[in-house]
Design a protein that fits this description.
- There is one protein chain.
- This protein is mainly β and 231 residues long.
- The protein has 2 helices and 14 strands.
- The protein has helices at residues 12-17, 199-208; strands at residues 38-44, 51-60, 63-73, 79-81, 92-98, 102-104, 116-118, 124-126, 136-138, 150-152, 163-165, 182-185, 195-197, 216-221.
- β2 (51-60) and β3 (63-73) form a beta hairpin.
């Protein structure tokens, strides 16, 4: 399910008094982390940035600890609040999202526990606003989904070697808001709205992600209205 990423500290009193320690782990400063014990944060310096940092975290014994970190790339159009995003703007939507499943042209890394769909020649992601399959994996492409308005997944051997679906506009799709937002392997430059990381980081994330721990991803900027937390 899609949740708006609340930009408040867990403790309202600390927020009001400005008492949150600067070294407090980022997930501990979020009012909502999705209710699980795994969280990925993707943070950019500001809304116009195309690069930033992605960190994956574990909650153990009430404490969030970083399990890994990697440089991240965002949309060539920067970042924008997910609820106001428009399709075709190449912007990465900020917010808190679940991770419905993984997929890839290459086989799932050893130890992968998420549902993982192998990409075949017949695999597409429908982005046609007029299709009943809008913002859905399609294999094969349905008759009401135009290929010109969709992604032929096998055509992106580097980016979609391994990927996780980000649940932006996924569970209750709003036409025109956007489709096909993933966490995937880096291409040559900024993305078309996804979040990407180096190949070795994506492999490690797939091995780390445990559906039983209800992982989510929080995407935002270091400050301002699209910050995942206000320091």
């Amino acid at each position: 399910m899609r949740r708006r990423l609340v930009t408040a500290l867990v403790s309202a009193s600390c927020c009001a008094l400005g008492l949150a320690p600067a070294d407090t782990a980022l997930p501990a400063r979020l009012a909502d982390t999705g209710g699980g014990t795994q969280l990925i944060t993707a943070e950019a310096p500001d809304y116009g940035s195309t690069t930033g940092t992605l960190t994956w975290w574990d909650l153990r014994h009430g404490r969030w600890t970083a399990a890994g970190t990697a440089p991240a790339r965002f949309g060539s159009g920067g970042l924008v609040e997910g609820s106001s995003r428009q399709q075709g703007t190449n912007t990465t939507p900020t917010g808190l999202y679940d991770l419905p499943f993984g997929f890839g042209i290459e086989a799932a890394p050893a130890g992968t526990r998420v549902t993982y769909r192998p990409v075949a020649e017949s695999s597409w992601w429908c982005q046609d606003n007029d299709s009943r399959a809008y913002n859905r994996w399609a294999d094969p492409l349905p008759a009401d989904c135009r290929a010109s308005e969709s992604e032929h997944l096998v055509s992106y051997p580097a980016q979609y070697a391994h990927a996780l679906v980000i649940g932006f506009n996924y569970h209750h799709p709003v036409r025109g808001r956007g489709a096909g937002i993933f966490l995937h392997v880096n291409g040559k430059a900024a993305t078309a709205g996804c979040v990407s990381v180096p190949s070795d980081a994506m492999t490690e994330i797939l091995r780390w992600t445990d559906p039983a721990r209800h992982p989510h991803i929080a995407i935002g900027t270091e400050g301002g209205a699209t910050a995942p937390a206000r320091h």
